[in-house]
Amino acid sequence: MRIEIWQDLTAEGRRDVLARPALANDETLAERVAAIIERVRNEGDSALLDLTAKLDRVELASLEVGQAEITAAGDQLSEVQRAAIRAAAANIEAFHKPQLPTPLAVDTAAGVRCERVSRPIESVGLYVPAGNAPLPSTALMLGVPARLAGCPTRILCTPPQADGRADPAVLYAALVSGVQRVFKLGGAQAIAALAYGTETVPKVDKVFGPGSVWVTEAKAQVDRDPYGAARDYPAGPSEVLVIADASANPVFVAADLLSQAEHGADSQVLLLTTSAELASAVAAQVASQKATLPRREIVDGALGHSRAIVVTDLAEALEISNAYAPEHLILQIERPRDWLSRVRAAGSVFLGQWTPETVGDYCSGTNHVLPTYGFARRYSSLGVGDFLRSMTVQELTPEGLRTIGPIATTLAELEGLDAHARAVTRRLAAIDSASAGDRR
């Protein structure tokens, strides 16, 4: 890792060391994704089978995973593996269940009741990629909150393996998390199938999950189409930022950086430290530890645009971090909780030397579907609320309309909307007439 001294950098140099690796800049990507989406809309299952054969190099007899394959998936895993998936699911449920909203009812004035109620999204599509490796943890992170939210239709798409089957760990995680149907589909064609439906794949209202640039572009396109499906949020390559002081263990810091670097060559890992000695020790540990990693080529790609940056103090480190808005933020410093209030923008925060980012990826209970590429400045980590929609309710008594009706008519007249005002004044006249009749 290159070591930089923040105080020695110009403004341009500071921008450069924090610059994320450019997303695949393929000017034809949007056009090619649009063509795939159009094919799926027009040709349905036949397009999906053909695209799977051409793009995934797998000939499928059917798109849906049969119940027998789902049931048999667990048998292909060891009891230790099955227990780990069940334990992770239990922790995810324990953290997400309290996120279910409580109905809100407020009397804003006498006779005026306002409410906010939530309803589950009717149908959701969960995408679990399998590019460099299958991700059963993502099936849990998506499936458990969807079930807790009560979404009536919960379906999952994941690319097929070379043998035409879905990954057994993904299938078992889907079963444990309450997914109802699974389809062997990947890439932009999977997103198109979920967004518009085919003879076999049901149309959904919202699509969730990470994926390649093809998946990301497809989600963006169907989200813009009123006949398509909403997406969770935009995403980019995975990333971690570690803030460490002189008390940090360089072995742990390097291990955290490498754990994120192995996601992909376009991942980014950054270290901000108040200690030049620690920066050197971490750089040495990164070189030593990566030598034994099987995904070393991917790691080297990520380290090519990663940095160790020496800063003046922790306050400066937090300011830099907030501007960067990392997907994962690790605070390996003395009394990390004392500094948590200064964290303004991060997808997920890990406090102290005994909290590796790995536990958030798998089993602490928090969700690992997080905003990346700086989107943590305006998006939150995935939660139960993303699978719900809320609506407001209001109910007025005659007395309530007398109380706030004049306010409404005044504002309507200010805006020149006479029909709005009359919808109130005609009712007020009826109330006055009825009251006069009662007095007679």
Secondary structure: elements and pairs:
Blueprint: E1 2-5, H1 11-18, H2 29-43, H3 45-55, H4 67-73, H5 79-96, E2 104-109, E3 112-120, E4 123-127, H6 136-149, E5 153-158, H7 168-177, E6 181-184, H8 187-196, E7 206-208, H9 213-224, E8 230-231, E9 239-244, H10 250-261, E10 268-273, H11 276-290, H12 296-303, E11 307-310, H13 314-324, E12 328-332, E13 348-351, H14 357-362, E14 388-396, H15 398-414, H16 418-439
Parallel strand pairs: 1-11, 4-5, 4-7, 5-6, 7-8, 9-10, 9-12, 10-11, 12-13
Antiparallel strand pairs: 2-3, 3-14
Written account of the structure:
This protein is of the alpha/beta class and 440 residues long. The protein folds into three domains: 152 residues, 3-Layer(aba) Sandwich (Rossmann fold), CATH 3.40.50.1980; 184 residues, Rossmann fold; 43 residues.
SSE topology string: EHHHHHEEEHEHEHEHEEHEHHEHEEHEHH
The level 1 CATH classification of the largest domain is Alpha Beta
Rg (C-alpha, Å):
26 Å
Number of helices: 16
Structural class: alpha/beta
Percentage of residues in DSSP E strands: 15-25%
What CATH architecture label of the largest domain applies?
A: 3-Layer(aba) Sandwich
Mean residue pLDDT: 95
Strand order of the largest sheet: 1-11-10-9-12-13
CATH topology of the largest domain: Rossmann fold
Domain count:
3
Largest sheet: 6 strands, parallel
- Which of globular, elongated, flat, extended, rod-shaped describes the shape? globular
Cα(first) to Cα(last) distance is: 90 Å
Per DSSP E runs of 2 or more residues, the count of β-strands stands at: 14
CATH superfamily of the largest domain: Nitrogenase molybdenum iron protein domain
Q: Residue share in helices?
A: 40-55%
